[in-house]
Amino acid sequence: MRQRRTEKWIGALALVPALLALGCADRTLSRSGYAGVELDPPAPKPEFVLTDTQGAPFDFRARTAGYVTLLFFGYTHCPDVCPVHMANLGAVLNRLPDEISRQVRVVFVTTDPARDTPERLSTWLAQFDADFIGLTGSPQEVERAQVAAGVAPARPDSTGGADYAVGHAAQVMAYTPDGVGRVVYPSGTRQVDWAHDIPLLARAGGGS
Q1: pLDDT for res 159
Q2: Mind spelling out the 3-state secondary structure of the chain?
Q3: Ordered domains of the chain (ranges, CATH)
Q4: How far apart (Å, rounded) are the C-alpha atoms in residues 119 and 94?
Q5: 81-111, pLDDT tens digit by residue?
Q6: What pLDDT score was predicted for residue 160?
């Protein structure tokens, strides 16, 4: 059983059952049946090592082997895309059967290591799901990880002072248990789409 989020997001997520009850009439599926954007060709899972919120090295490829891995690059001061993605994922995983949700690893890599201390990153992610994995590193290490994952490196807005924003990739990348990136999920992906796709991802590429 996944650990539950704190109360902050419960009210915002109260509509999840209604969303999951929606029909499929307005969903356009890929050729393999995914609601997300299917990659053609698929991409290999990237290799990089960053630091987790306990201060230990985290080998991304090795530590997520055999799991559905949902990788996202963002930052905790983000006003919209990052908390929405994490809230939606936390809500859906909380409601999927344990035999599905326990096969999933959500990895959030901060694109703002200057402000996202391990403590802040851990506390922020726990609002959505205490099992979410937070990673950080030097700016150079984080940029190399983004390049390895095939996304444009994030860039801070130098005109914003201490409350600067960070421009970053808005998509979640999904890797199936065989270590292949098959689908990406842009900003605006709905909970009903996640609920549809996560079981498919768990069965793809050798999953159970």
Answers
A1: 74
A2: CCCCCCHHHCHHHCCHHHHHCCCCCCCCCCCCCCCCEEEEEEEECCCCEEEECCCCEEEHHHHCCCCEEEEEEECCCCCCHHHHHHHHHHHHHHHCCHHHHCCEEEEEEECCCCCCCHHHHHHHHHCCCCCCEEEECCHHHHHHHHHHHCCCCCEECCCCHHHCCEECCCCEEEECCCCEEEEEECCCCCHHHHHHHHHHHHHHHHCC
A3: 46-133+140-157+178-208 (3.40.30.10)
A4: 23
A5: 999 999 999 999 999 999 999 999 999 999 9
A6: 65
- Give how far Cα 152 sits from Cα of 82, 111, 118, 168, 194, Å: 16, 11, 23, 7, 24
- Identify the CA nearest to 39 among candidates 172, 170, 182: 182
Decide if pLDDT at 27 tops 70. no
pLDDT in tens, 128-171: 999 999 999 999 999 999 999 999 999 988 776 778 999 999 99
Token pair listed for 161: 């002072």
This prediction's pTM: 0.86
- Joined tokens for residue 33: 């049946």
